[in-house]
Write a structure and sequence with these properties.
Elements (H helix, E strand, L loop, with lengths): L4 E2 L4 E6 L5 E7 L13 H7 L17 E4 L1 E2 L2 E2 L4 E6 L21 H8 L15 H19 L2 E9 L14 H5 L11 H14 L5 E8 L13 H10 L4 E6 L10 H4 L3 E2 L2 E2 L7 E2 L2 E2 L4 E7 L9 E4 L5 E4 L14 H23 L11
Antiparallel strand pairs: 1-2, 2-3, 3-7, 4-7, 5-6, 8-9, 9-15, 10-15, 11-12, 13-14, 16-17
Helix pairs in contact: 3-8, 6-8
The structure holds ligand EPS.
Ligand EPS binds next to loops.
């Protein structure tokens, strides 16, 4: 009922608030024997963290993972894996002024309407801080997918405001470039333009939306389920559950509206499909092509520009949010989108193995 857990065979439960003593997760259903150490979490948590560049929130969290259970002598045991990260840099006084006020565009109002009580410090449970634990859980999923099946998941920032990567249609993404700048931007030459853009936005006290693309390479055909457990349906739900996400596309997504069938269908040849408008999923089941998804993130609602709102006493007020906010939450969303895709894929892989593990490779298999 409370929806803090997702996944069927691999389930992840997260807990904690932005300004509470700690955040954490419990990962249940993980196969035994996977080598895991605190050091494994460092890279992806740093990719997602605040305070790593001047273009994101300046909150400085250590994001040090404590493994509380499920790992013995460096290997997963098959029992629930509990991970904990202590919050060390919450500055709750920034929220004193808005404790009784709803920020327009934020979850303040809806949490209040639903529960009649809320933790206003740093957005409480609705904070992007919660995504830390998704990324931590997915470190294990990414490792298992890579070791067991050679599957890799990569994301990149595909648009920020009106700026798009200067890439020709269908050009391969240079992931060295993506990892070499704080924006996860695939075209290094455009980074100064992005820096200038975000600096100006921050000076204006405003924020902007973004698009993040994520792809899984090497997924074998067959993962996914029909009807209610479709791989694309679960992927869309998982990606939509990320804070600030307002749209999800799989493959051609909404561009399919204006396509004809002769254009949209991905024709099949022995040496491969001739296009990938389906985003690697047909009938909810992986085709063996890259799994391709794209998400739209709304602009951060905590901004310095005053706006009209209400307070808990029912009075109309003007709101201005101080604090250490991201001018664009999309900048840090790339590892989060990768995490959600990896967790969905691992869950689906385990489910496929459970039901169809004896089927083996069916021919013909398109390269
Ligand atoms: C967030 C607001 C800021 C961000 C936070 C997400 O928190 P605070 O106001 O406490 O500085 O720093 O992000 C993180 C702490 C994180 O680790 O992602 C929000 O309102 O969502």
């Amino acid at each position: 009922m409370s929806s803090n857990t997702f996944g069927k065979l691999l389930s992840v439960t997260t807990f904690g608030e932005s300004h509470g003593p700690a955040i954490g997760c419990v990962i249940d259903g993980c196969p035994p024997g996977i080598a895991i150490a605190p050091a494994d979490f460092v890279h992806d948590l740093a990719r997602r963290a605040t305070g790593k560049s001047r273009y994101t929130s300046q909150r400085h969290e250590a994001d040090e993972v404590e493994i509380l259970s499920g790992v013995y002598e460096g290997k997963t045991t098959g029992t629930p894996i509990a991970l904990l990260i202590r919050n060390v840099d919450a500055r709750s006084k920034d929220y004193a002024e808005i404790a009784q006020t709803f920020r327009p565009g934020h979850a303040d109002y809806t949490y209040w309407q639903k529960y009649g009580i809320r933790d206003p410090r740093g957005g409480g449970r609705a904070s992007a801080r919660e995504t830390t634990m998704r990324v931590a859980a997915a470190v294990i999923a990414k490792k298992w997918l890579k070791q067991r099946y050679g599957v890799e998941v990569h994301g990149w920032l595909a648009q920020i405001g009106g700026i798009r990567p200067e890439l020709s249609e269908g050009a391969a993404i240079d992931f060295d470039s993506v990892e070499s700048n704080p924006f996860f931007w695939p075209v290094a030459a455009q980074v100064p333009e992005l820096e200038h853009y975000i600096n100006a936005l921050r000076k204006a006290g405003d924020s902007v939306g973004a698009r993040v693309n994520v792809v899984a390479v090497g997924v074998p055909p067959g993962w996914g389920e029909p009807v209610y457990g479709k791989l694309d349906a679960e992927l869309a739900a998982a990606l939509m559950s990320i804070n600030a996400v307002k749209g999800v596309e799989i493959g051609a997504g909404f561009a399919a509206v204006v396509q004809n069938g002769s254009e949209h269908r991905d024709e099949m040849r022995l040496d491969g499909f001739t296009s990938n408008h389906a985003g690697g999923i047909l009938g909810g089941i992986a085709s063996g092509q890259d799994i391709v998804a794209s998400i739209a993130l709304k602009p951060t609602s905590s901004i310095l520009i005053p706006g009209h709102s209400m307070n808990t006493a029912g009075e109309e007020v003007e709101v201005r949010t101080k604090g250490r906010h991201d001018p664009c939450v999309g900048i840090r969303a790339t590892p989060i989108a990768e995490a959600m895709m990896a967790l969905v894929l691992m869950d689906q892989a385990l489910r496929h193995r459970a039901q169809c593990g004896d089927v083996g490779e069916v021919s013909p298999r398109i390269a």
